[in-house]
Amino acid sequence: MSCRLLTGEGGRAAVDDVDTISYVWPISNSDAAYLEGVHFRLLWHIVAKTSDEHLTRDRVLRLTDVPPMSALLCQKRLRWVGHALRRAPAEGARLNVLEKLNKLKSHWFD
User: pTM of whole model > 0.85?
Assistant: First the structure.
């Protein structure tokens, strides 16, 4: 599952994931890679029985039954879309998400 960041006004970013877009905090690729590494190391410490045990990233994720950090970030962003769309019609977060969705729709159908 891939998430593509679209820069918005005010230094914020929107994430585009299969026709769904949300207004969220910006995250760079290097920050995402860093979070993936930290996530793996924490899970490795939970699973590894000895400090010299070699476990691959996929094996650690399979043993802990935890999705990769990129999937967790994408899930949080998609939850924000649902949250924003349930807000009052004049709410700023809802208007921003609708504006981004309308821009995306007009971009694809032009």
Answer: no
